[in-house]
């Protein structure tokens, strides 16, 4: 069997509030195979975002092991974590976080340039992704000129631009109406599958989770 693209062992995270210690993650073990799309279910406040922050190497303070694409990443310094994120990870959030002064194409081009692509390569990749997401006529529009669904499509294209081994998505359609959410998620999942990336997608929506390859549930700091 191929090596997991993500493997956590005994992942923990706690926070201090006054004199109390809040254990959000109490020893999470998770494996995701290359190309596998996994739904992370749990109610609000269950720690889904905390888990995604951990495996996305977005902050420290976590205990346990995090292996990404075969590399132990939990104890890396800031430079090392940045390198792993750049080489192996893509992110989609509930709110798009697009750069407001850049148009749709430029928002998708930028992460590719950071990774070392030529501008010609980056622009071609951006055009392909945005066209696949139904934005062929909106490529030169800035975020303020796009609808919520269109902005989230640009965010999806940006996350997939560097063909990451693993895409992490935190309620990626949670800010959209139901009909738009269905369409955007379908397009997102199709693109992820087409390029062979794995994905861990946090949601509280059972119906959306059922469209993924596997469902894991976070409860009381542990996966069920």
Radius of gyration: 17 Å
Taken from the alpha-carbon principal axes, the silhouette is: globular
CATH H-level name... which superfamily?
Answer: P-loop containing nucleotide triphosphate hydrolases
Along the chain, the helix and strand elements come as EEEHEEHEHHHEHEHEE
Q: Kindly report the average pLDDT value.
A: 90
User: Count of DSSP E strands?
Assistant: 10
Provide a count of the helices: 7
Cα-to-Cα separation, first versus last residue? 23 Å
Q: Determine and state the CATH class.
A: Alpha Beta
Helix and strand content put the structural class at: alpha/beta
CATH topology: Rossmann fold
Question: What share of residues are in beta strands?
Answer: 25-35%
**Strands of the largest sheet, in order across it?**
6-7-8-3-9-10
Main beta-sheet annotation: 6 strands, mixed
Number of structural units classed as domains = 1
Pfam family, one: ABC_tran
Domain ABC transporter: 6-224
Keywords: ATP-binding, Nucleotide-binding, Transport
GO molecular function: ATP binding
What would your notes on this structure say?
The protein is 36% helix and 27% strand. It has 224 residues and is of the alpha/beta class. The chain has one domain: P-loop containing nucleotide triphosphate hydrolases (Rossmann fold). The strands form two sheets. It has a six-stranded mixed beta sheet. A four-stranded antiparallel beta sheet has the order 2-1-4-5, covered by helices on one side. Strand 9 (214-219) and strand 10 form a beta hairpin. The radius of gyration is 17 Å and the shape is globular. The two termini are 23 Å apart. The relative contact order is 0.20. Keywords: ATP-binding, Nucleotide-binding, Transport. It comes from Sphingomonas canadensis. Residues 6-224 form the ABC transporter domain.
């Amino acid at each position: 069997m191929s090596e997991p693209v993500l493997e956590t062992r005994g992942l923990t995270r706690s926070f201090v509030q006054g004199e109390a210690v809040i254990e959000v993650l109490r020893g999470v073990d998770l494996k995701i195979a290359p190309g596998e799309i996994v739904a992370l279910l749990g109610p609000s406040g269950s720690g889904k975002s905390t888990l995604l922050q951990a495996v996305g190497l977005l902050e420290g303070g976590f205990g346990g092991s995090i292996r990404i694409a075969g590399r132990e990443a939990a104890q890396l310094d800031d430079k090392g974590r940045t390198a792993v994120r750049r080489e192996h990870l893509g992110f989609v959030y509930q709110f798009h976080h697009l750069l407001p002064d850049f148009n749709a194409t430029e928002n998708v081009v930028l992460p590719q340039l950071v990774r070392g692509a030529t501008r010609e390569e980056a622009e071609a990749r951006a055009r392909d992704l945005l066209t696949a997401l139904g934005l062929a006529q909106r490529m030169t529009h800035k975020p303020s000129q796009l609808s919520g669904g269109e902005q989230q499509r640009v965010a999806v294209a940006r996350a997939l631009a560097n063909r990451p081994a693993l895409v992490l998505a935190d309620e990626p359609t949670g800010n959209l109406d139901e009909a738009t959410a269905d369409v955007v998620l379908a397009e997102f999942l199709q693109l992820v599958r087409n390029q062979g990336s794995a994905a861990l997608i946090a949601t509280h929506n059972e119906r959306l989770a059922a469209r993924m390859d596997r469902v894991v549930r976070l409860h009381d700091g542990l996966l069920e």
